[in-house]
Amino acid sequence: MGSDSKPAVPQASPDRHQARADERDRKADLRALAADERDRELLRDSATARLQARLETMPVIEQAKGILMGQEGCGPEEAFDLLRRASQRSNVPIRELAVLIVARSTGTGAGPTAVTIPLTTHDP
Q1: DSSP string of 26-71?
Q2: What angle is formed at CA 50 by the lines to CA 44 and CA 51, rounded to 5 degrees?
Q3: What is the pLDDT of residues 38-80, one digit of tens each?
Q4: HSE value, Cβ hemisphere, 13 Å, CA-based, for 121
């Protein structure tokens, strides 16, 4: 007589389940590594941009410091401190103040319509 048993459905072996899980984990790890690399690239790019901006502004700030040192008879640290304090008082970035000082000193701009920023060694 016939058997009431159904044909066996192939079952995935535990090894096969583990291999699939391992593959999913490996892909997730690769995605995480790719995301980490993108984050590192963004940080590198932003750090590079900050360094580039500093390199571009340093010459004019150094020139302004030299002008202040000559006018005020002070050293480089005090000249930078004058720039820093004037920047804070006027809420104008140091670089912009430096450009103004250099322009006035060389006669290349900053006429009567320019903002006057007091740069003195004496605070009020």
Answers
A1: HHHHHHHHHHHHHHHHHHHHHHHHHHHHHHHHHHHHHHHHHHHHHH
A2: 90
A3: 777 777 778 777 777 777 778 899 999 999 999 999 999 999 9
A4: 12
In this structure, the dihedral spanned by the alpha carbons of residues 78, 79, 80 and 82, taken in order and rounded to 10 degrees, is: 90
Reported pTM? 0.49
Q: Which phi and psi (to 5°) does residue 116 adopt? A: -95, 125
For residues 64 and 101, the answer to whether their CB atoms sit within 8 Å is yes
Neighbours of 102 (CB within 10 A): 20
The Cα–Cα gap between 46 and 54 comes to 12
Query: Which has the closest alpha carbon to 94: 121, 117, 122, 111?
Result: 117
Structure tokens at 8: 């066996």
**Please, what are the domains in the chain?**
14-106 (1.10.10.10)
